[in-house]
Amino acid sequence: MNDRMPLLARARGLTRQARLGFLMAILCASGLAIAQGSAAKGAAQGAAPSPGLVAESSPGPSAPAADASPSVLPSSAPSPDESETAAPTNACAACHKAISAPQRAIAEQWEASIHGKNGVGCADCHGGDPTSDEIGVAMDPAKGFIGKPTRSQTVALCGTCHSDVNRMRQYQIPTDQLVKYQASVHGQRLINSKDVRVAICIDCHGSHDVKKASDPTAAVYPLNVPKLCASCHADAAKMKPYGIPTNQYALYAASVHGKALLATQDLRAPTCASCHGSHDAKPPKSTEVVQVCGKCHTATQALYEQSKHARLDVGPKCWTCHGNHDVAQPDESRFFHPEDVIFDCATCHNPADQTLILNADRFAKDADRRCDTCHHSASQIYAQAQGIHDALDQANQAFLGAQARIAEAAGAGMIVSDADVELSEARTNLIQARAAVHTTKLTVVAKLAAAAESKAAAARKFADARLNESTFRREAMVVVVAIIFVNVVLLYLMRRRIERGRGTEP
Amino acid sequence: MAAAGRAEGTGSRVGDFFETRLRIGPLLSALVHVRIPIEARPYYLGGITLFLFGVQVVTGTLLALYYQPTPDAAYDSVKYITSVVEFGWLIRSVHHWGANLMIICVVLHLLRVFAHGAYKFPREFIWIAGAGLLLATIGFGFTGYLLPWDQRAFWATTVGTEIAGSVPVIGDGLLGLLRGGADVTAATLSRFFGMHVLVLPLGLGALLLAHLVIVHQLGLANPKRPEPRPGTFGASATAAPEKLRPFWPDYVLDEVIAWAVMLAILVILASVFPAGLEDKADPLITPQHVKPEWYFLSVYQLLKLVPRIVGIMAPIVAIGALVFLPFLDRNPAVTPRKRPIAILVALAAIAVMVGLTVWGQYS
User: Fold this and answer.
1) b or e along B26-47 (b: 16 or more beta carbons within 10 Å of the residue's beta carbon)?
2) Which of A183, B12, B191, B332 has the smallest number of Cβ neighbours within 10 A?
3) How confident is the model at residue A350, as a pLDDT?
4) Do B250 and A498 touch (CB under 8 A)?
5) In Å, how far is A495's CA from the nearest CA of chain B?
6) Alpha-carbon distance B231 to B117, whole Å?
7) Is the dihedral of CA B209, B213, B218, B222 positive or negative?
8) Rounded distance, CA A7 to CA A21, Å?
9) Residue B234 has what pLDDT?
10) Are the C-beta atoms of B104 and B265 separated by less than 8 Å?
11) Which of A445, A300, A454 is nearest to A385 (CA)?
């Protein structure tokens, strides 16, 4: 506008013919500019990823489409490209802060957000003209204003920038989120079933208050992820249409993984996203589980792959013995049921062709994830499992015995660092022996268990020596204190004699 | 008294042998004559503290024969003393408990002197030297705590020196002086060792000498009546002559009995609760709960409750008031009943310190 004023002022000084020519020239230039702008917008929209590219049939009940526009990328959606050139200032926040407390809160959330700090303004998602303080201009649909984007539009809006390699390069952020989302259970239902109740970007990341995933206050920070997922997946009403259980969070929170993450705040522990994926959320298939668990339990995976279990097409996988959400601390009690298990042929074999079957329902309860759930007590494999169990149990008892003895010595104030070193080695051997169970090889487990037992015995020997020394010290102390006591008595008698000799009392 | 140039006979051949060569008899005679009013009840706390100081000197010297004051070797040398050296555990444990008992006895001695008004004329300098001895003893505790170079030692010293660094005006300089740099490092260990075995013993020795010489010259205070000032004609001037108790052998014998009892307590504590050792100091692993030794807990807890400047200045002002107490308290009376304000203030201060210490321990 400022640039135009001097031009018009100058035009007033020209002849009528010249003025007409000048006006024509301005109109032509404006028309050209509008045409170029439309072409650029069309090009930008054309380059944006389309969810239709990965559209496949989605399982589950079909849901009613709540949005008027189910398309993930509507043509009216604003593009950040527009605001980048047109919005050096953001007048939206200035006005909206003055409207009401909720509007002020939204503006302030945006200012504090990662977007607000990096120049992603209101118009980048809502459209309009952020440079104008006139409501009719700033929120003019002709200027691309769309108001609150629909849930379908939102995914496309976020994806427009976040799938743009050139735009994201400076932040070193991956650009595959939209593609992954389109392949996820959430994305598939949104695209194929037009189900807008599924999780979209803003449900996890927030809308105006988007934070970096590394921000501990962000809902997507690893420590907060289980509760974030549970906000929908533990809600029976929300999950009812999909027939999904809602006890996953409760099981996870009580599991060894959940305790490590939620109670100990150990960021190495897996969150929901570690196994299911985040943008590409989907339950791993039974055949994928070994790879998924092996992502962290690398050494255990390698041991498992040496086993006979791994060679079976329908053989036991990680979940068969450990469960999934409710993974418990493994120990020697996980080998056998306390009582004998009743078998019939159909327990493990298909009656039709005698092939092996592994029915997931039989392992639903933690108490049933045992070796003898499959292996009959009269079988050779059971005897081998018994041998592995006994070797581990013996090593574990030796370890616990040494540990208790060391604690006793430490409690007596003795320095037990030498015993601690041996115990630490025993612990390492015991962990290795327990991990070797995944090979299902008795000789491998027995060798490591024997090493653990030997180290535990050495640790116990050191602890016993320290306790003997402590006993000696206390016995010697009694003798020394008795000698001191005798001296005190003698000195007291001497003092009394002096006083009597002087004929005075103290 | 022997005439100049001639020694008096001691009545024994050995005594005569030394007396003719040293002529120390008159000095010893003077030393064993200290005025002890029959009403005085010192509870032998000063003497026990002196005994404990002696124990610390002996055990500290033995420890220094093996101890190596570098971050690489300090921890292992302490471990070696405790686990390998014959009776090393006993020497270290006695040193550890001796330090704690010494602080307790110094404080009890101070409270006894306060309760009996024994800091008043003419014993002001005894009190000031005694307050200096208390501070030196705490300094021993602070510097000695770092020497094992285990996790507790390292982090308690990090917190302790950080607090010292918060003192207004001189804080930065004090922090640099204590640490010998920005962090607790080899330079800090070297300085703390130097202070622990050279600076503080010399300082404490000088203060102790002054304290004992003045006590010897003035004798013990009478807790029933104040010392008359020159030129006054109070009741004490006209009262019957003061009854005294012989310093030698009566008082000395009582002290020796008290020392023997304290030795028994030391042996029991060292045997039943030997000095421990945590993991080697690691500047990269901060323990979950870092707490200073029990005698700094009240200051530590105060710092958590009040603004930092208040938490720093309050103990400094309290120490200043303690040192100059004889000049602040102008009431000549010595019996507690005639000094209700002083006694109440002291009781309140004790209650606050004990309360903060207990709170700090369990917070």
Assistant:
1) eeeeeeeebbbbeebebebbbb
2) B12
3) 84
4) yes
5) 7
6) 21
7) positive
8) 13
9) 53
10) no
11) A445
Largest CA distance in chain A: 144
User: Rounded mean pLDDT of A91-98?
Assistant: 88
- Measure B254 CA to nearest chain A CA, in Å: 8
Q: With an 8 Å Cβ cutoff, are A491 and B272 in contact? A: no
Q: What is the pTM of this model?
A: 0.70
In total, the C-beta contacts within 8 angstroms joining chain A to chain B are: 58
Angle at A313 (CA atoms; ends A311, A314), nearest 5 degrees: 115
Tokens of A180: 């992954």
Category of A503 on φ-ψ map: left (φ > 0), alpha (ψ -120 to 50) or beta:
left
Contact B82 A491 (CB under 8 A): no
Q: Do B250 and A491 touch (CB under 8 A)?
A: no
Number of H helices, E strands in chain B: 16, 0
With contacts defined as CB-CB under 8 Å, which chain B residues touch A491?
253, 256-257, 260
Q: What is the rounded CA–CA span in Å between residue A442 and residue A384?
A: 6
Question: What token pair was written down for A241?
Answer: 């249409």
DSSP string of B52-116, one letter each residue:
HHHHHHHHHHHHHTT---STTTHHHHHHHHHHTSTTHHHHHHHHHHHHHHHHHHHHHHHHHHHHT
The reply to whether residue B79 touches residue A415, judged by beta carbons under 8 angstroms, is yes
Q: Which two tokens stand for residue A10?
A: 């100058």
Structure tokens at A177: 């989120």
> Cβ contact (<8 Å) for B250 and A499?
yes
- Give the containing element (helix H, strand E) for A397: helix A380-411
d(CA A224, CA A272): 10
Is the pLDDT score of A88 beyond 90? no
DSSP B199: I
Burial of B309 (0-12, 13-18, 19+ CB in 10 A): exposed
Say whether B280 sits in a helix, a strand or coil.
Answer: strand
Interface of A with B (CB under 8 A): 413-415, 417-418, 473-474, 476-477, 480-481, 484-485, 487-488, 491-492, 494-495, 498-499, 506
Chain B residue numbers touching A480 (CB-CB < 8 A):
264, 267
Contact A477 B271 (CB under 8 A): yes
State the CB neighbour count (10 A cutoff) for residue A503: 6
Q: Please give the backbone phi and psi of residue B309, each rounded to the nearest 5 degrees, phi first.
A: -65, -40
CA angle B271, B273, B279 (to 5 degrees): 120
3-state DSSP assignment of residue B290: coil
d(CA A126, CA A83): 10
Do A413 and B83 contact (CB within 8 A), yes or no?
A: no
A20 falls in which pLDDT band (50, 70, 90)? very low
- Say yes or no to pLDDT of A58 above 70: no
Distance from the Cα of B60 to chain A's closest Cα (Å) equals 20
CA-CA distance, B196 to B201, in Å (whole number)? 7
d(CA A195, CA A70): 9
What letter would DSSP give residue A334? Answer: G
Task: Enter the tokens of residue A66.
Answer: 């709540």
Which of B249, B254, B274 has the CB atom closest to A413's CB atom?
B274
ipTM: 0.88
